[in-house]
Amino acid sequence: MSNNTHTSAEPQLRPVTARGSALSARYLPALVAAAGMLIISFVTRISVTLVHGGWPAREWWPVSRAFASGTAYDVLVAQWLLLPLVAYLTLASARWLGRRVNRAMLIGTMAVATFAMLFVAVAEAMFFAEFDGRFNFVAVDYLIYPTEIVTNIWESYPTGWIVAAIAATAMVILLPARRRILRIVAVPVPWRQRTVAFAIYAAALATTSVAIPSDLSRVSDDRALNEVASNGYYAFWKALRGQGTRYDALYATRDEADAVSRAQRLLSDAQAPLSTFATGTTLRHVALGRPETRLNVVVVLEESFGAQLVGTLHPAPGPSLTPHFDSLAAEGTLLTNAYSTGNRTIRALEATTSSLPPLPGISVVRRPESVDLFTLPALLRARGYATEFIYGGRAVFDGMSAYMTNNGIERVVDQNDFPSGAFRNAWGVADETIFDKALSEMDSLDASGRPFYTLVLSVSNHRPYTYPAGRIAADPNARKRTNVVQYADWALGRFLRSAREHRFFDHTVFVVLGDHGPRVYGAAEIPLASYEVPVLFFAPGIVPAGARLSDVASSMDIAPTVLGLLGGEYDSKFFGRDVLALNGREGVAVMTHNNEIALLRGHRLAVLGLRGATAVYDIERGGGLRALASPDSAANKLVEDAIAYFETADALFRRGGYRFDRAVSVASAP
Q: Residue of 86, 145, 230, 633 with fewest CB within 10 Å of its CB?
């Protein structure tokens, strides 16, 4: 049989005489893939623009810039993603590429890659709908713990149909090009030509990587439009690289000693004068001026419980979604201008336990060096308190269990400790089951004779928006955000009504707050409305009933405020303040969003960005931000205060200055 004879299963290789034609034929799979990537990226950019709601016609120029900048990112990302394929096509000989198995592997790889690109595009649109942004630190965190995320996606969306549609689309895209690719990819091309082609590609990749700045996506003051201008893969890579980033590597800095001194002045007050601070740290002695009362402390972190959902804070036409919380607020002290430190639950856990500003990168909850930190549970445990953390899901998620047990919590209760028949979804058992378990646990602790600290984290107010039937009038099969808010409110009201019948109630301080808002939205660089949360101190006979405090506050203030209610004296390293005893001083809130960190005081917000960038905004009616073109002395002071908070916190944490020193005096400890 002649060497030119081929079986019918193998495509005929037509001779290609022109060197340029042969070379372009060799790299046809990369060219096809590049075209597909750029088209998918362009369509994704259109889809996230529509998901956001679009922009007015007068914004045509910023929107045009966003698409132009985005295209530059798309080209850069495509070049990096195609590098392995280009390298393979350079190294592989024509004989190697002509083999049946290798051709099948090449087409199979391209099919998988096409499916993956389409899947990522759909995932990006869904992510944008929830967070009004490209893949960021949240996406990185979610990817590390796939069990909850995959289950949540499966329960929230018609995932099977979506995956099938993506697979079918991938086949429609690839099949027309398959035969042509197989026919010409194995055409012989001299090694020297392939080497030169790869060198040109590598040079182009290097040039593009250097020429495209990381801030090219900043096309306007509209945060969401800047997100449109970015690229999901690029944003994810930036977030991944920034997981363990030092503050001083990215943000504006000052002399460390000066920053610490400024932070000390900001934290000093009548209970902790500047003279009581230890040199180079936030450690100071706090004397509250009244005897200690060994009250129990129960902190309830309500999942995705943003202030905009709360009727008593933001009344809207029609019945309130939160009648039970509204009723409780009339019996306690409500903070009406409080903010979470981030848009993840672990940021709330970090803030309410350690009272640390949100450090750049990942939360301290997830950092392996977060052992024996100065936390509220550690301090109360030193006073003889029993301490526990109750969560309806897997406590291993986001490293919560390790953080808690390493930082003052004696007992962790998670989904393994609940009845197997309890209603549950991707995130764990329903709120009512969590609260019933909490009551049982607190009864046991109370019977032991020890005061207790209990931290409860709810789960129901989250996608997939499922909850037990028969609890509220709304249909649980509708799976609406508004319905699950009502259920979460019902479960919270039921919990505190039941708690009144227990022996521990009269000597217990309850703190109920949202861990963060339900979703991120808005044009502002720091979307304040998404961070506003209700904070309620509830203890009839102990905390003033019906009080509403409008001072700026933060979830970082929970620990010192709780200790203020307990009385006595203690040594503190906390960055938060006792918001019930500000005595005329302005409160502050600190927060992080993607790569920006910020300090809020009064009606101004100082934002610290990458590469030492700083900006100050006036907060307008309705929550919008207006940048100050020419910051005044007060604005500059706010920037310096923001730097002092974050630089000092990061430096102390990294060098061990935020450890819980066993020698720290707790004057009222037994």
A: 633
